[in-house]
Amino acid sequence: MRKLGFDGPFSGTRHQFMIYEQHRLAIPSNVEYSMPQLRMMIREVEGIIGHKITADEWNML
Q: Rounded distance, CA 44 to CA 25, Å?
């Protein structure tokens, strides 16, 4: 996520979070992410950074 310009992770009350400009992205606390959870996080990141993330780009992170 830092390669995309996010800062952090920072400790929150329940979850860690990362910051991109004025946007805050919560990082789930479970050890492994389910596919739906990962898809939701990628969509949220796309909305924050303003462009689509390809599977290749995500895998390079």
A: 8
Give the pLDDT band (50/70/90) at residue 19.
Answer: very high
Per the document, the length of the chain is: 61
C-alpha–C-alpha distance, residues 44 and 54, integer Å: 14
| 59 domain-assigned | no
DSSP class of residue 32 equals: S
Neighbours of 24 (CB within 10 A): 13
> Which ranges of the chain would DSSP assign to H, the alpha helix?
35-49, 55-60
Please report whether residue 43 resides in a domain.
Answer: yes
